[in-house]
Design a protein that fits this description.
The complex is a heterodimer of chains A (107) and B (119). Chain A is mainly beta. Chain A is built from no helices and eleven strands. The radius of gyration of chain B is 13 Å and the shape is globular. The chains are: A mainly beta (107), B mainly beta (119).
């Protein structure tokens, strides 16, 4: 099974900051990596798929990069509505697996 | 508009059974692969099960294999999760999610239904 490890587990930042979250896979997953945002009491929302493709309707301040085992999600200029938990997910093989999440908090 | 609505959650005793449903609308349900994902209280996301569009291929997480059964009725635009031999560690919000290619991402999710396993 493929293990996904996110870092950091939590992050404090201010509105306007540039933020990067890292996700590492325990083996190569090519570009089968997706990113989701989850707010309290809500279902996850897809942000990025196939490592770097922006889901329709997602602001362009979100971007993804990487391939193989190392991936990043970058938010170029944090907005108040971006404070949430972010999860990466590998879809290279079942069992699909998620990272443990990164909680982005207001500084 | 794509809509997924889960139902069937509730409080159940350890060892009991429960059947979750996910009603789909706004898209051609029979064209899409579907998944169940769960989230224990205060914890992260855990993938539970996958079913192909024609239900010819099914996968489960090891933690539920042999106890949970995923199925679908394309005529009724519905996805199901039969959960047997429930344990306290199955307590979670259960989401159904539509899978899209490329990269098998989950582009639409239901609002979730809470399953609580407790005596």
């Amino acid at each position: 099974d493929i293990q996904m490890t996110q870092s950091p587990s939590s992050l404090s930042a201010s509105v306007g900051d540039r933020v990067t979250i890292t996700c590492r896979a325990s083996q190569s997953i090519s570009r089968y990596l997706n990113w989701y945002q989850q707010k309290p009491g809500k279902a996850p929302k897809l942000l990025i798929y196939a490592a770097s493709s922006l889901q329709d309707g997602v602001p362009s301040r979100f971007s993804g990069s990487g391939s193989g085992t190392d991936f990043t999600l970058t938010i170029s200029s944090l907005q108040p509505e971006d404070f949430a938990i972010y999860y990466c997910q590998q879809s290279y093989s079942t069992p699909y697996s998620f990272g443990q999440g990164t909680k982005l908090e207001i500084k | 508009e794509v809509q997924l609505v889960e139902s069937g959650g509730g409080l159940i005793q350890p060892g009991g059974s429960l059947r979750l449903s996910c009603a789909a609308s706004g898209f051609i349900f029979s064209d899409y692969k579907m998944n169940w994902v769960r989230q224990a209280p205060g914890k992260g996301l855990e993938w539970v099960s996958y079913i192909s569009s024609s239900d010819s291929t099914i996968y489960y997480a090891e933690s539920v294999k042999g106890r949970f059964t995923i199925s679908r009725d394309n005529a009724k635009n519905s996805l199901y999760l039969q959960m047997n031999s429930l344990r306290a560690e199955d307590t979670a919000v259960y989401y159904c999610a539509r899978e899209i290619v490329p990269a098998a991402h989950f582009d639409s999710w239901g609002q979730g239904t809470l399953v609580t396993v407790s005596s």
